[in-house]
Amino acid sequence: MSHSEDFRPRQRIDDGEAAGTPPPMQDDWRLIDALEEYQAALEAGRRPDRQAFLARHADTGPALARALDVLEFLRTAAP
Amino acid sequence: MSPHESQGPETLLQRARTKDGDALGQLLEPYRGYLALLARLQIGRRLQGKVDPADVVQETFLEAHRHFARFQGSTEAELTAWLRQILAARLAKMVRHYLGTQRRDVRLEQQLAAELDQSSQILDQGLVAPSSSPSHQAARREQAVLLGSALEQLPEDYREVLILRHLEGLSFPDVAQRMGRTVLSVKKLWARALPRLRDILGGPS
Fold it and tell me: What DSSP string describes chain B?
């Protein structure tokens, strides 16, 4: 289920965050959805075509590519 | 540029052997985050909520300063192995304290040292290094050291969510419970922490 389809209290996702944090934006959910999809693929032993994945999620902005670098960096690091 | 980047750990090691106290401080400082990460993972298993990893690392550094003349190695790998031994002894002392036993337990120290070695090795092996990743620069250094140092520079909430999710392997609901937040909140922290860590690790995009 994608975050664009479900019903969530979107104005409250910042619970507990520091005062002054910008309000949640739709971009956050797009990024979270994309990262969860990529992480699930890595955990399943697959490595998605990175360029195709980035192209498919181009609306998430430049943070996605940087975040994918770290997901790959950490992918089997759990002791 | 840090002293390690400008001189390299091996050069600082040589300088520290000449009783250059500043060099020894500069040599050890970049391992603060690495040792804190290892301590954090061990404390999570045994002493959660009772011991601050930063305190254990500070005691480890004091011991390292005190006994540096005993260190015979010449490489970063040998130095990190020696620091892990000291860390294991400090952790063992804390475990004994919280278990209510005073006598030194060599077996416990050996077990902790073995677990720290294993954690460090798994971190090193697990940090896969595609050529376009931030670990490009890590090829010359122990990757667990770089990761520990980078995590140290993150805001606490960001560091916590990455450690719990990726290094302790918890699910998001379990991460949320440990952090006292909602699942949605920790997912948002996670999505912001990942690119921030990438920026700290640096390297080519």
Answer: --HHHHH-HHHHHHHHHTT-HHHHHHHHGGGHHHHHHHHHHHHHHH-TTT--HHHHHHHHHHHHHHTGGG----SHHHHHHHHHHHHHHHHHHHHHHHHT--S--HHHHHHHHHHHHHHHHHHHHHS---TTSGGGGGGGS-HHHHHHHHHHTS-HHHHHHHIIIIIS---HHHHHHHHTS-HHHHHHHHHHHHHHHHHHH----
Q: Which residue of B has its CA nearest to A62?
A: B195
3-state secondary structure of A53: helix
The reply to whether residue A31 touches residue B191, judged by beta carbons under 8 angstroms, is: yes
ipTM of the complex: 0.71
Q: How far is B89 from chain A (nearest CA, A)?
A: 20
Low-confidence ranges of chain B (pLDDT < 70): 1-7, 44-46, 99-103, 121-141, 203-205
Tell which residue, B122, B116, B69, has the closest CA to residue B92.
B116
A to B CB pairs, distance under 8 Å: 98
What's the DSSP call for residue A6?
S
- The beta-carbon neighbor of A79 closest among B41, B128, B129 is B41
Q: Which of A30, A54, A69 to mutate to test the interface with B (most CBs of B within 10 A)?
A: A69
pLDDT digits (tens, 9 = 90+) for B118-160: 777 666 655 544 444 444 444 445 778 888 999 999 999 999 9
pLDDT in tens, A11-59: 333 333 444 444 456 668 899 999 999 999 998 888 899 999 999 999 8
Best of B43, B128, B153 to substitute, by most chain A Cβ atoms within 10 angstroms, is B128
- B159 contact partners, CB below 8 Å, separation of at least 6: B151, B152, B193
